[in-house]
Design goal:
Blueprint lengths: L2 H21 L5 H4 L2 H26 L5 H41 L1
Helix pairs in contact: 1-3, 1-4, 3-4
Keywords: Membrane, Transmembrane, Transmembrane helix
């Protein structure tokens, strides 16, 4: 993994962390209290922090070796994939709230 790739990834990981923190408030409390949701959130945050550390080291060392580079891509995939799951949870919460409003108006 080159230094430029590490620099780009070191800019992406903080955005993932900020998005996770800000979007947590938008998700229904019932979903947030579930054990699997907490595990997914922890995995996203841990992946982003490990990836950020690897990326910063890669920038400082002018690139990463093959093992560290693959590890960085894997934790990046976990963090971004988990973020996609989190955003789908936000959309599901919004859809459920709209359905509840429609049912209340109809009934």
């Amino acid at each position: 993994m080159t230094e430029a790739t590490c620099a780009v990834l070191s800019a992406v990981y903080p955005l993932v962390l900020i998005t996770v923190v800000l979007e947590q408030r938008s998700i229904d409390l019932g979903i947030r209290r579930r054990r699997w949701f907490r595990a997914v959130t922890f995995t996203i945050v841990a992946g982003a922090l490990v990836g950020l550390g690897l990326s910063v080291i890669g920038v400082q060392l002018h690139g990463l070796g093959p093992v560290a580079g693959v590890a960085n891509w894997l934790v990046g995939l976990i963090a971004v994939g988990g973020l996609g799951f989190l955003l789908l949870s936000v959309l599901a919460t919004l859809q459920a709230e709209e359905d509840a409003e429609t049912d209340a108006e109809a009934g």
